[in-house]
Amino acid sequence: MASRRSDSGQTLVFVALAMPVLLGFLGIGFDMGYMRFMKRQVQMAADAAAIAGADEITSCTSPGCAPLTTAAVAAVSKDNSFPSVTQSTNCTPVPGTGATLVVVNNPPSCLASDPHNGNDSYVETIVARNVPTFFTKIFGFNSATITARAEGGLGGGSSCVFALDQAASGALTNVLAGFTSSCGVVVESNSGSAFNCFLGIFNAPYIGVVGGDGFPLCLFGGASPSTGIKDPNPTDPLAYRQAAMKAAAPSPTTCGTSTTSPYTGHSGGLLTITSAATLNPGTYCGGISINPGANVTLTPGIYTLTSTSASNGGLTVYAGTTVSGGGGVAFYNSNIRNGSAVAGPNGGVNFVCSSCTAGSVVLTAPTSGPFEGILFFQDPGNTSSSVVVGSVTYNTKLTGTSYFPSASVTFAFDISVDYNDLVAKDITFGVQWNSTTIATNSYNNYSTLANGSPLKGTVGLLAE
Fold it and tell me: What are the pLDDT digits (tens) for 435-463?
């Protein structure tokens, strides 16, 4: 009996000695569970901030604008009930006791391996929260910093054609031609006859018109016009990208008396090409005219076009030419004349039927960078009208978005491409070349673009 009482006493001793250890493990487990809970809360805060920031992308006229940053920080402090929230510019923020630091980058810049690094269509957020511990304080660990990262971007929009004119009659006109699209069309004019369609076929799943349709005499294969819609916000779906595209293009203000074009032997004024030539990205003072008989190779990159007088500038491509630019080219058609900004006509982008001899023109927009998906970008200060034609008959294949925010564009497109979105002030669909009417199809396959359609919606989505 004595032996059993002795064993019982030893057990009590062992239990007593082990109790602090057991309580320590229990305390560590509690703290770890709390840290996991807080990790989820911090990640939710980072996600919310990224989405809130992305919601403001199209409202920005330059990357990282104040409304974007404010919205992202507010999503952490208000929506997630984190007190003491301040903004940081350090990619590895270290908050003080009980504090929360928020990093907001548009474009993302903290991870070199990030596929969206440098892309201002995305917002990167990093949230770091200093969290107090409980039981592990006895081991000298009073708090821990929990960090989470997220990225937000805009989802693809449901429309791919925008007529931006706010007041004109016939801001979008379709006469004696056909138009077919699998995505929506938006006409922003408040005129009672903003959308004019006469003796043609217009087939789109959505036709939104701020004003009226002027009693269209058309056959509608999809939706009929929805008139009196609310003006889109923002009105220009690509305004947020203008600053980045201008910054990425070769400077148009380098044009002057001593400027030498990247085309050997050309020192300014309209560059007219009639034979074989290879052009490199750069600034072309006076614009480029590719005439019948020319065989031009465009090496990949961005081509800036300026004017030296009211009669030149822009890009003109005649029928009967061979132009190879399928490796990723873009044209920034500026409002610069002789090195200074001049509002008004400074040369448009025109595909001209002269002899109507078949040629071969292949232009494909870049698949990455600020000009991702953009083939033609005409500066808002340049009001020159343009004629953009992609045609099976004349073997003119143009892949990319055409952006002419302050100009009228005649647009005809009957050749199959991946995508050919259009944003312009005023739009006329269909054109006749050599008595042949060229109808227009809108194509919307963005699989070659890492970031999808250049024309984004207005709702932010979580990207990472």
Answer: 677 889 999 999 999 888 998 876 666 77
Residue 302 token pair = 């961005």
Backbone region of residue 278 per phi and psi (left: phi > 0; alpha: psi in -120 to 50; beta: other values): beta
> 151 and 50 in one domain?
yes
Q: At what angle do helices 2-55 and 66-77 cross, to 10 degrees?
A: 150
Instruction: Say if strands 422-429 and 159-163 run parallel, antiparallel, or are unpaired.
Output: parallel
Q: Which residues contact 6 (CB under 8 A, 6 or more apart)?
A: none
Q: How far is CA 286 from the centre of its chain?
A: 29
Residue 105: other Cβ atoms inside 10 A: 23
User: Among the three residues 156, 185, 218, which one is the final residue of a domain in this structure?
Assistant: 156
Residues 244 and 144 in one domain: no
Tell me, yes or no, whether 185 lies in a domain: no
Number of structural domains the chain divides into: 2
Query: Is 75 inside a domain boundary?
Result: yes
**CB 411, CB 388: distance < 8 Å:** yes
* Dihedral over alpha carbons 365, 368, 369, 373 (to 10 degrees): 40
Kindly give, in sequence order, each residue whose CB lies less than 8 Å from that of residue 459, ignoring residues fewer than 6 positions away.
55, 154, 155
Please answer whether residues 193 and 174 qualify as being in contact, where contact means their C-beta atoms are separated by less than 8 angstroms: no
Q: What is the separation of C-alpha 94 from the centre of its chain, rounded to a whole number of angstroms?
A: 33
Residue 304: name the closest of 326, 335, 273 by CA. 335
Residue 397 lies in a domain: yes
Cα separations (Å) of 296 from 190, 199, 326, 391? Answer: 43, 39, 12, 19
Q: Write out pLDDT tens, residues 303-342.
A: 999 998 888 999 999 988 999 998 899 999 999 998 899 9
Show the domain range for 143.
2-156
Q: Contact 316/290 with Cβ under 8 angstroms?
A: yes
pLDDT the model gives residue 155: 72
On whether residue 165 sits in a domain, the answer given is no
CA distance 400 to 390: 11
Distance of CA 144 to the CA centre of its chain: 38
In terms of Cβ atoms closer than 10 Å to its own Cβ (0-12, 13-18, 19+), residue 401 is buried
Nearest to 378 by CA among 236, 244, 242, 256: 242
